[in-house]
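User: Second chain of the day. Same drill as before.
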Amino acid sequence: GHFLLCFISLVIFKYLLYTINKSLNDYGVIDKFTNKRTIEAIKSAQKFVKVVDGNVVDEIYIKNSENNSLIQDFELIKTIFNKFVQVI
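Assistant: Same format as last time:
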């Protein structure tokens, strides 16, 4: 069970990287996302969420000089992933 779950996670992660890099290539961007860059971007995406009466009112990402480029990477990943999900 655990082996299968790890394998599926790896396949999904590799497909996510492939999709991101293919989308960037289609837009003419030469830069490539690596495993480390993607993981660091996802780990750095911390945010405060204001919830009022069960509804999300505001989302504020925690930004500082150390993670500014990682937050930009995360936003790019999120944008590409959202476009990909809309196609499916």
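The longest helix spans residues 2-26.

User: Great, on to the next one.
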